[in-house]
Design a protein that fits this description.
- The structure holds 3 protein chains of 3 kinds.
- Chain B is an alpha+beta fold.
- Chain B has 3 domains: 102 residues, Ubiquitin-like (UB roll); 114 residues, Fumarate Reductase Iron-sulfur Protein, Chain B, domain 2 (Orthogonal Bundle); 70 residues, no CATH class.
- Chain B is 39% helix and 11% strand.
- By secondary structure, chain C is α/β, with parallel strands linked by helices.
- Chain C folds into 2 domains: 120 residues, Up-down Bundle (Glutathione S-transferase Yfyf (Class Pi), Chain A, domain 2); 165 residues, Rossmann fold.
- Chain C contains 14 helices and 8 strands.
- In chain C, helix 2 packs across helix 13.
- Classes of the chains: A alpha+beta, B alpha+beta, C alpha/beta.
- Chains B and C meet through helix 8, helix 9, helix 10, helix 11 and helix 12 of B and helix 3, helix 4, helix 6 and helix 10 of C.
Chain lengths: 576, 317, 305
């Protein structure tokens, strides 16, 4: 029988959302335990944060010539329209605003974060006037600086953290969540964490397509575990793509050549097609939007269709129109050029698109971050209420951490049922078999190829074809998975096999959700429904599965503070 | 980082000798050979990914971000530490785990030792005064000395090449730990007794100043000059540690004599005991130690000027 | 052609390793090199001044540089650690106006000023590059044919990058010490540890660390057939030579590996008598090396002294 560890609040995930939730729950006096598939503050996409957008404390900016009202309005526009395409919970946006203004920066500074100042002590912003960004340490390296402070604080408090331990399933008692099964893959040890409250903070940047910013361990486990437990998910099809990511070498597909303004200037990089024609520059085509990815990919798609670019190459990003002195100082990506032996003042880098962050996720009530499964909460980008970002997910962590801790005091500890634990143990160890057959990494590659093939330009036929292809992997390949070794020590193949199942579940539900949304919006483009339809689809497109049956419903999103200009417009004309 | 051998642009094939060792089943490490088609500007990680993904070899390797932010993919290539995601592949590579660390499997090493050592250094800001709210009064000038230290990825490449750690028997914390400690010690908000921690917990004066850590650092941090020496200075000001006493003795001899007389210094620092007597017996007859010069020398005429000039400088940071 | 340099022997070459100063002058004389020793230069501070204050480190080294500038000559050092201290300070003061001002404020008390007009070199580089390998080869009177030499460079002539940049070829050439050995006809022994650390800078406070580090290099060098070690740094020399019996005790091994300064190896190959090179001052006797040269290297020219 697997060991069982008891706790009040279990947090699954070690990024900005998870670390925030852990500290918040601990602040409330709960006994907290953390399980992280990678390493706290090193895995997931939180460390990719270059800057923190929509920083609020304007009186401390270097230069500010905007009134507070005007700035608030710009922020709201950015959050609701450009960052979330009107799919964000607008009441949540207002609460988030207050958190960013009053708590976020101070909470981190208290822990020792250094928000970059100038010599006079003023906060040194980057970004546009409308949505200034703040940096801790350097542009391109804010994430690691922040996450490391949280990591150290968690350890200082003596909170038990299980790293390189992947949660494999949620355990329920039929009514609420009672814990999770976990595999420590360093040594192949399977155990259980029994908890009164469970917070999923597994992020949104999953390695599900051939080119993906998702880090090694991100196989959408949170989505899969939630789906299997009957939890509702929403808007999974709203999947962002990066456009200006390094094309090759392949390992550098995660290197993002930021389209945003460089520190201290309004200058931005440019994208050129295979004929050298510039087709995107943020300054011109998407001013004031510090995440112009939807516009980038819309414009790229035109080039691809015209044969002047491909999805995995044939177009370039460059800073050669900007003086070297500006591009070489204080930011991370100048080193990309140097390391490749290129001159940032002269050379352009070939790019490819990469499957990036997912706006949708688990459906939760944002007042307490609780899902339709009692005892299960979300923190961060795993939710569907907001795209993500370190500031927002930290807010979620605080809300969910407090709620989960408070609720835990009212709950009795329930031991998870032994048969459920045993069933999951059999499932997990079932993959630990050697022999001829299909290596799990090949199955992973096949799944990623399916999602890559589905790509950006979608239609019903392609979505259905993707479903069929995924189903074939599930029926034909999974039963034949076999490993090279049955060692329990860091068995990469074994982990791949478990990940394959999570990926299949997550990809299937994502494609199904996409079939249900009959419009285009943000990064989601269906050529069979090439218009934004706010009348019908400004909503949470909700999907779930119970007893093998798929269920779908929609929940309209009220335009509490900001409404779209048009009820319906052609996708390529909408500027969000 | 250390220079590479033949660049991949001159080769169609990358030849790899890959270290394999599973402590739970293997008696000893072995090496497996692989050939990987070369792609221009290939990183070491591309080679490893090819072996795992295309050749379906289930070996253990750790990486997370792939973009030089997490520091988890550091390994040894041809005897030197490299960040697999950042450094270019070479045409012939022997790929091994970082040395001087426990191997979990193949290229994956344990970070537990590092974490345990880090915990001993109070690796969190210990505020002198209670936090008064955002933004606290700070300037970029105050943080300029730690600018490079904040680039640290904790990849542990420096730890793996430190000869003091490698030879064992020392409580020296090592360069990565000292970078973390130095960032806090120089933080104007910090009020912990960093001098004591530096000298007596981290044993900063055990650093031999070989600069191997700097050579290995993928973030190009000037570890010795910007992390370690500031810590020594902090310990010196507080009079913490034998190393601080030794430095003071060194300076005193120079100010008195106008130059460093090694005999006088050795006596001041080590005193007269069996070891120093043994050394003296060895060196005096051959003239390596000149007792006359050590004890009977008149103060040279230039010593006063030196003492004055050094004296005005030593009080400054 | 007469070459003139300002010369900073450093505290080791004037004390524990006086034979280094003696042999340096002897070799310089052979090549019509004049080494003008600086008067009352003080100390570069080893690694100690840096541990006290950055300003002290810059001022002490700036002072030595200012003295060389007053003589109007490039500065030659014979110790790796002196070299690094001087090279780094020279680079820093040339580029950092504020630091230069602070140093000059201190130096003004003695009527000195740093202006940033000279370069710093190791005497080894003077031989291999100012003079050149060809010139060295020409003057070899007693080739070291077959003498198996293990070069030990010393950390501070190799690292960090600032000292590499000051080296001939900006550090991209083969190590100067290797080129020197070859020019003299020695056989270079490859061994692990050649470019590693001897541990000198902790020998007074953590002797065992230094003994173990150097012990492993001795073991490797000897194991690969080295008859002697040659090093451009008297601090490394001190650990390997003066501390060799201590190393033997610590590692329970016997070595009997003599350790030569660069100028001594050059002097022997050029036909200078051992007495003129101070070999008898070493703790580890050099008889075996001398016997090898006597046996294998016949005098080839009338330049023998």
């Amino acid at each position: 029988m697997a060991d069982v560890i008891d706790t009040d609040v279990l947090v699954i995930g070690g990024g900005a959302g998870g670390t925030s939730a852990v500290l918040a729950a601990d602040d409330r006096g709960a006994k907290v335990t953390m399980a992280v598939k990678g390493l706290v503050g090193k895995s997931g996409c939180s460390i990719f944060a270059s800057t923190i957008p929509f920083g609020t404390p304007t009186q401390h900016w270097l230069v500010d010539d905007m009134s507070a009202e005007e700035r608030d309005r710009h922020r709201l526009i950015f959050m609701v329209r450009y960052y979330n395409h009107y799919l964000a919970d607008q009441a949540y946006c207002k609460r988030l605003e207050a958190y960013l203004r009053d708590e976020f920066f101070g909470d981190l500074e208290r822990l020792g974060a250094y928000w970059r100042r100038n010599e006079q002590g003023k906060i040194h912003p980057t970004g546009s006037r409308r949505t200034p960004n703040v940096i801790a340490h350097k542009q391109g390296a804010t994430g690691p600086a922040i996450l490391d402070k949280r990591r150290r604080e968690i350890f200082r408090r003596g909170i038990p953290v299980y790293e390189e331990c992947a949660a494999t399933s949620l355990l329920t008692d039929g009514e609420r969540v009672v814990g999770a099964t976990v595999l420590d893959y360093r040594r192949g040890r399977f155990f259980v964490i029994a908890a009164k409250s469970v917070i999923l903070a597994t992020g949104h940047s999953d390695y599900l397509a051939s080119r993906s910013t998702g880090t090694r361990e991100q196989s959408a486990d949170g989505v899969a575990m939630a789906l299997r437990a009957g939890v509702e998910l929403a808007n999974l099809e709203i999947q962002w793509w990066h456009v200006s990511d390094v094309g090759w070498p392949k390992s550098w597909m995660r290197f993002h050549l930021y389209p945003n303004p460089l520190i201290g200037t309004s200058e931005t990089s440019r994208l050129y097609n295979s004929e050298g024609e510039m087709f995107f520059e943020q300054k011109t085509h998407s001013p004031g939007v510090s995440a112009p990815y939807t516009e980038q990919i819309r414009r790229l798609s035109r080039e691809v269709v015209a044969g002047k670019a491909r999805w995995d190459g044939g177009y370039w990003s460059g800073y050669d129109h900007i003086p070297r002195e500006i591009t070489s100082t204080g930011q991370h990506q100048a080193k990309v050029w140097t390391k490749l032996g290129l001159d940032i003042g002269k050379d352009r880098i070939e790019c490819g698109i990469t499957w990036h962050m997912r706006q949708g996720g688990i459906n939760a009530d944002t007042k307490r971050m609780e899902t339709n499964l009692p005892g299960l909460y979300v923190a961060g980008a795993i939710g569907c209420h907001f795209l993500g970002g370190i500031g927002a997910v930290s807010y979620d962590g605080k809300v969910s951490g407090h709620a989960a801790a408070d609720d835990a005091t009212t709950r009795k500890a329930t031991r998870p049922a032994e048969d459920a634990i045993a069933a999951e143990e059999r499932r997990v160890f079932g993959f630990l078999r050697a022999g001829d057959g299909v290596r799990p990494i090949e199955a992973k590659r096949r799944i990623r190829a399916i999602m890559w093939e589905l790509g950006y330009i979608k239609n019903e036929r392609k979505l259905e074809a993707a479903l069929d292809a995924l189903d074939e992997v599930r029926r034909d390949v999974v039963p034949r998975l076999a490993l090279q070794s049955t060692t329990r020590n860091w068995n990469t193949g074994w982990m791949d096999a478990i990940d394959v199942c999570a990926m299949l579940d997550a990809c299937e539900v994502t494609v199904r959700s996409g079939l249900n949304r009959k419009e285009s919006r943000g990064p989601f483009y269906r050529e069979d429904y090439p218009y934004v339809d706010n009348e019908h689809w400004m909503c949470r497109n909700i999907i779930s599965r119970a007893n093998g049956e798929w269920r779908a419903r929609v929940e309209p999103i009220p335009a509490l503070h900001l409404a779209p200009d048009k009820q319906r417009e052609p996708f390529f004309e909408a500027d969000y | 980082m250390s220079p590479s051998s033949k660049p991949t642009t001159e080769s169609d094939i990358v030849r790899v000798r890959l270290y394999r060792f599973d402590p739970s089943v293997d008696a000893a490490p072995r090496y497996e050979s692989y050939e990987v088609p070369c792609v221009p500007r290939m990183r070491v990680m591309d080679v490893l990914d090819y072996i795992h993904e295309e050749l379906a070899v289930d070996f253990g390797y750790r990486w997370l971000c792939g973009t030089r932010k997490c520091g988890t993919c550091a390994i040894n290539v041809n005897g030197s530490p490299k960040l697999a995601c950042w450094d270019e592949a070479e045409a012939e590579m022997t790929i091994e785990p970082l040395p001087n660390m426990e191997v979990i499997r193949d290229l994956v090493t344990s970070r537990d030792g590092f974490e345990a050592s880090l915990a001993k250094l109070s690796p969190m800001l210990v505020r002198k005064e209670e936090y008064a709210g955002f933004p606290e009064p700070l300037t970029s000038t105050q943080f300029a000395p730690m600018e490079h230290l904040r680039d640290c990825l904790q990849c542990l490449a420096c730890q793996s090449v430190c000869p003091v750690i490698a030879q064992g028997g020392s409580a020296f914390a090592g360069p990565a730990l000292l970078v973390a400690l130095s960032e806090l010690a120089q933080d104007p908000r910090d009020g912990a007794d960093r001098a004591h921690i530096a000298a007596d917990v981290a044993h900063v004066f055990d650093c031999v100043s070989c600069y191997e850590c700097e050579r290995a650092c993928p973030a190009e941090i000037p570890i010795v000059g910007e992390a370690i020496e500031p810590l020594k200075r902090i310990a010196y000001r507080a009079g913490e540690g034998e190393g601080a006493e030794h430095a003071k003795a060194f300076l005193d001899v120079v100010k008195t004599r106008g130059y460093l007389n090694p005999t006088v210094l050795a006596l001041k620092t080590r005193g007269v005991n069996a070891d120093t007597l043994r050394m003296a017996m060895r060196m005096i007859p051959r003239g390596k130690v000149d007792l006359g010069q050590a004890f009977l020398e008149r103060k040279p005429s230039g010593a006063e000027g030196i003492a004055k000039t050094y004296g005005s400088a030593e009080e400054l940071p | 052609m007469k070459r003139v340099y300002a010369y900073f022997p450093g505290c080791s070459a004037k004390g524990t390793c006086r034979e280094l100063d003696v042999s340096t002058h002897a070799v310089a004389a052979l090549f019509d090199i004049e080494l003008q020793e600086l008067e009352n230069p003080g100390c570069t501070g080893a690694r100690e001044f840096r541990a006290i204050s950055e300003q002290l480190h810059l001022t002490a080294n700036g002072r030595i540089l200012a003295l060389a500038e007053r003589a109007g000559r490039d500065l030659v050092a014979v110790c790796d650690t002196c070299l690094l201290n001087l090279v780094e300070t020279n680079g820093r003061l040339k580029s950092d106006a504020a630091a230069r001002e602070r140093v000059n404020a201190a130096l003004a008390q003695e009527g000195l000023a740093y202006r940033g007009i000279i370069d710093v070199k190791h005497f080894l580089w003077v031989l291999t590059d100012d003079l050149g390998e060809e010139r060295l080869r020409e003057r070899v009177a007693r080739p070291l044919r077959g003498l198996r030499v293990a070069p030990f460079y010393g950390c501070h002539i190799q690292r960090p990058s600032s000292v590499r940049a000051a080296a001939p070829g900006n550090g991209n050439d083969a190590p100067a010490l290797d080129r020197l050995c070859r020019a003299l006809g020695a056989e270079i022994v490859q061994y692990e540890g050649a470019s590693k650390c001897c541990g000198f800078h902790v020998v007074n406070v953590q002797e065992k660390i230094a003994l173990r580090m150097s012990g492993s290099h001795l073991t490797n060098a000897k194991g690969n057939g080295a008859q002697c070690i040659v090093t451009p740094c008297p601090l490394c020399h001190t650990v390997f030579d003066a501390y060799q019996p201590s190393i033997e005790r610590e590692l329970k091994s016997r070595y009997d590996v003599p350790v030569l300064h660069v100028s001594q190896l050059v002097g022997l190959a050029l036909g200078l008598a051992p007495e003129r090179l101070g070999l008898s001052r070493h703790v580890v006797g050099c008889e075996a090396v001398l016997a090898h040269i006597d046996r294998e290297g016949a005098p080839e020219s009338a330049h023998a002294m």
